[in-house]
Specification:
It contains 20 helices and 2 strands. A two-stranded parallel sheet has the order 1-2. The chain has helices at about 5-20, 25-35, 40-55, 60-65, 70-80, 90-100, 100-110, 125-145, 150-160, 165-170, 185-195, 200-210, 215-225, 230-245, 255-260, 265-275, 295-305, 310-315, 320-335, 340-350; strands at about 40, 115.
Length: about 350
Amino acid sequence: MSQLATRKSTSTARAVGRSAGTGGKRLSDAFEIVSRLPAHAEARRRLVHEVEGGSASTSELADVIESDAGLAIAVMRAANNGKGPPGRVAGVSEAVASLSPQGVEKLTGRVPTYDQLDGASSATYERFRRHGVAVRHAADRVAEAARLGQRDELAVAALLHDVGRLVLVELYGDEYGPTATTETPEERIRRERREIGIDHALAGAVLVRRWGLRGSIATAIERHHSAEAEGHAAAIGLADAIVHHAAGDRIAPDSLLSAAERLDLGPEHVRALLYEFPHTGETRRRSSEPCPLSERELDALRGLAEGKVYKQIAQELSLSVSTIRTHLHNVYRKIGAVDRAQAVLLARDRGWI
């Protein structure tokens, strides 16, 4: 993290501490409690089953971990606070590869668990988990439509986007937690700022930075309700609104369209996402392999996937045909494809386009 980013993070944390009204002591205690977030007992059981089976891939283990914020927090914190600088590991798949399946099993064995059959005591955790997982799925669909990269990093930010609500619960009570409400997300965050001087997005971003996760993940969490959000933050904001809409919550159409517009998505994309979510089909697994292609190479490959010829792709990207040809030859070389059809199939199978 740069010195400027470090100073900004420190001043933000101080501002949150002042809003908590206790010089930061209560805030520190709240952070510590949320940092020990319990995992769903079933998620933990499935993870152990996959590891002990010995045949699960990194992606399959990541799928289980990404179904539970408690597991994801433990794994991402461990991977980013070992050897090397904090923030070096962007996603869960990369974290699993860094820690090893056996290391992940040992690590998550120390994570406390809850069982939703326990009753009201686990209700807050379960509401938080379900909403985070739903937004993670929706954000992946949004990113696919908007052609956003770094999808593993986006998955972590989406899963943890509301972790600040748990901080506010510890500071101010269940009223500020992941409870059902008649407010729109915009109304709720304005009320938080008005009544307690901070909002859950800011509190969550400060906590994620304390965990040593990548700064861009914290930024996406902090800005996902901002009217100027871009990239991953805008994708999470739109995904959050889609999930609330699917749950029957009140969502302003203008907020959906505004978030989509910042991602260069039109009303037709919003209609399709609202219609399709929640998705009933199998979620396409993201590859644990980092994408070796540049953004321009991915853009050219997406053009091929849409059935366009070199000239059409070049016009859309404001490049020359020869540049597009060079980009695509680089694509074939990097991923070991012999032609355009194989390149498209390989990239889709690995979740790059």
